[in-house]
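Might you be able to check the backbone structure tokens below? Thank you kindly.
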Amino acid sequence: MAWHHHARSPRDAGAHRSPTPGLLLLGEGLASKGGLTGLRRSGTFGLGGVCVLKRLSTLGLVSGRGAVKSLLKACHAGRLKGGLSVSLRATPDELVGPLAMALGGAARRLKVLDVRTGAPMVLEVEWGQIHEKWELEGLEALAHNLNDLFASEADVAAVAVLGEWDDMLQLWCVPKAVLARLLDEGPLAEARNRPMLQRLVGRA
């Protein structure tokens, strides 16, 4: 098979198309590579109000009880289903495995064939018949590339980059079936990669 080097548009991530391997999710747990810790699955969701929390609960996106003052806090506390709270020291190769697992569906078949450290980090990836080399400046670039790669896969969630909380990057894997609704109703209004999320629902 031929290798394709894709220099994807840095519109949302500030880098080329980017996924990374590393910390691996084993069921509900994690196994870290190289002793790095700090990646945590999030389980429930809350925004700045009981109404939003209840609305998200009806969509099956949160668990637990009690209001949370911000979406970032909810993700960090593990209350968002599909949420990840990631150490800012983590690298793309460490995150790609757990993130692909959290995205679900066809994303779980993504393979990382090689990693070249440096700035930027280069990952050689394979998904089905697609072989690519990704140049990644950081974790948000990885989220961008994964969203781009799986844009047409309905069973793969979208990665929303919520921002930082308590020195951790908060990521939320949102089912595409509810992505447009969350964009319209406000929970994702301040997502760092909102333009990419808009593209995924055909609003570019």
